[in-house]
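Much of what follows relies on a compact textual record of a protein's fold. A complete example follows; check for yourself that the lines match position by position.
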Amino acid sequence: MRMLKKGFLFQVSFMASVFPVNCYLVEEEDGLTLIDAALPYSMKGILKAAAAIGKPITKIILTHAHEDHVGALDKIKEALPDVPVYISVRDNRIMHGDTSLEEHEHQTPIKGGVPKKLKTRANILLKEGDLIGSLAAIETPGHTPGSMSFIDTRSKALIAGDAYQTRGGIAVAGDIVTWFPFPAFGTWSKETSLASAKKLVSYQPKLLAVGHGEMLENPVREMEQAINRLEQKLKGGL
């Protein structure tokens, strides 16, 4: 486990140099908000990181319901049974194992590791604009139909889940990066991801924090370049 700090944001990484899986702790006055729950064995590392910061975890937010983002959730809830869990209205269905699509959604199968044995259920369902402490919820479908990102209203740090990756080079969800193609393989709709990636740029974030890869300061230009790459690939039929 590795922990890095940028302002109010702590990145907690597992297998950082091989197959990075990140979750985040956001510092608030009264405690910490955990964003995502990494891998099944990550509970001890997450709780150790919170102890090192010296504040309790008071909220758990999920960017989406894939297994590498909910992996330790059951064990964390056993340790912290009173801490509420938040997920988007749409990905709450995936959290329950429902991979059906709505009529207006891109009609391609939902991909990635949909949890099959997860016991924990969300206490609060999120929609666009909801505030969780200092974090504003942003609907960013694409990687999954209900993926959400969160921007810290104090610092403009953007926690984007798998809407982008930075491992192997910055890329929009669905754009295959040779050195780290796995987020792309788990992406439901490239076209929807592209629209969400553009939406995130409009927030002009000062920091980009993702599920796989290093945090990126002043990321807007590189986010725009990633958007252009995927846009050109889609125009070419790739």
User: Anything to note?
Assistant: The chain is about 25% helix and 25% strand. The CA atoms of residues 67 and 115 lie 5 Å apart. The mean pLDDT is 97.
